[in-house]
Amino acid sequence: MRYGERPGGSRVGMSVLRKLSMIYLLCALPFSAAIVLDRNPPLNQASRKVVAAVLDSLRDKVVRPAVQIAHAGVAHIVAAVSVPEKPAPAARPVSTALAPKPAPIVIPAPRPLTAPEPTLAAPSAPPATVPDLRIADEYGPAPRTVKVTPPPKLALAPPLRPTIVPPPAAPSAAASSLAPAELARVTMRLRDSLTREMLDNFGLFLYVSKADVGPWSQRLYVFRKDAGGNLAMLYNWPASTGREKDEIAPNGTHQPSLTPEGYYQIDPKRMYRNHFSGQWREPMPYAMFFNWENQGLETGLAIHGATGLELKQLGTRASAGCIRIAPENAALLFKLIKDQYKGLAPRFAYDRRTATMSNQGVMMHDAAGNLQMADGYKVLVFVENFGGENVVAALF
After folding, report:
1. Which CATH class is domain 178-394?
2. Rama region for 18: left / alpha / beta (φ>0; ψ in -120 to 50; rest)
3. Other CB atoms within 10 A of residue 156 CB
4. CA distances from 172 to 175, 311, 324 (A)
5. What share of the chain is helix, strand, coil (3-state, %, to 5)?
6. 3-state DSSP call for residue 350?
7. What is the pLDDT of residue 89?
8. Do residues 225 and 255 lie in contact, with contact meaning Cβ atoms separated by under 8 Å?
């Protein structure tokens, strides 16, 4: 042994080193486990399930029994140390021998009720001075006069002249429609937007202006093609297109409330008198869905009737992407399409790489250049963001 060396010093140093090593390994173990679990998601999920199962087992087999035993012990101790309550002393019987008898209560008989004699005053004014009531006749401007004569011997105050306010008139179709010159511009706009194949192979055309401003904005125009190929406007209705925003739908998914521009057909397999949107949680009466597939998904764009507060929003951008119209107009259009325009219609081109159907008016042809037709409805919908602005006025 050298000078200054403590006996067993090397052993003590080794034992301390081992303890420090064990402490280091124990501290590094959680970090190593966290790194392994982070890089292996399946193992991370499985470990979470194992930990949850162990915690549930401890809760059911250890914690709950211990809590019950503790509650029972506390109740036993409280029962042992509690002092029983003393019974309340019995009430002494009251002797009624010396108690004076109460005096009887005498209720006087009610006096008979007599109605006062009515006093009739002399009329304060002759009957000729009583004003007449004039009731407006809804079928003509001339009023009818109704004479009101007061009963004799009664003093009547002069009656007030009633003011009859007619109910507000419903807006007529003429008041909400455009001038004939403006309607002619709409017709020319639609015709210039159609190709020869479109005009020859469809019979009913729906033109929708999704513009936010302008005389044509937020309206749906219905045109019928006659035997000579001319377009005649049948209806001109206020509408509501998409709000043009990125929103969170009521079902929790991220959805754009957009009405895309383009040419569309009506899907013959998706026309419903009563439909409910599970995505936006709203009814869609007389729903006429577009036959348009976008990136492999069958879109939910449709023309349908408005309900509830949506009726007051017609004429503005207020929908989640569909085209809303009044419910009576939707029912009329629904019946018109199903009854008169069912038949062969051209198929729009389909891009297999993007799984998207064309909405730019490109149609599908065979090797010989002939249009490929399919059963459906001979109805073409054209949506554009043009409000009919006056080009001449816009220059100034």
Report:
1. mainly beta
2. alpha
3. 13
4. 5, 16, 19
5. 30, 25, 45
6. strand
7. 54
8. no
CA–CA gap between residue 72 and residue 369 (Å, rounded): 91
CA angle at residue 299 from 314 to 346, to 5 degrees?
100
Closest by CA to 324, choosing from 288, 351, 370, is 288
For tokens 């038949």, the residue is 343
Rounded CA-CA distance 79/84 in Å is 10
Structure tokens at 109: 């008989």
DSSP state of 245: S
pTM score, two decimals?
Answer: 0.56
Tell me how many helices (H) and strands (E) the chain has: 8, 20
Q: 49-72, pLDDT tens digit by residue?
A: 777 777 777 877 887 888 788 878
In terms of DSSP bridges, do strands 379-384 and 204-209 run parallel, antiparallel, or are they unpaired? parallel
204 bridge partner residues: 224, 379
According to DSSP, the residues that pair with 302 across neighbouring strands are: 289
Question: Which residues fall within 8 angstroms of residue 372, CB to CB, at 6 or more apart?
Answer: 346, 347, 363, 364, 365, 366
| Cα 388 from Cα 207, distance rounded (Å) | 12
Q: What are the structural domain ranges in the chain? A: 24-65, 178-394
Give dist(CA 178, CA 137) in Å, integer. Answer: 32
Q: Is residue 373 within 8 Å of 344, Cβ to Cβ? A: yes
SS3 of 22, please?
helix
- Round to whole Å and give the CA distance between 303 and 207: 12
Other C-beta atoms closer than 10 Å to the C-beta of 370 total 9
Outline where DSSP puts E strands in 239-339: 246-248, 254-256, 262-272, 276-277, 282-283, 287-290, 293-294, 297-298, 302-305, 323-325
Tens of pLDDT, residue by residue over 249-274, are: 998 899 999 999 999 999 999 999 99
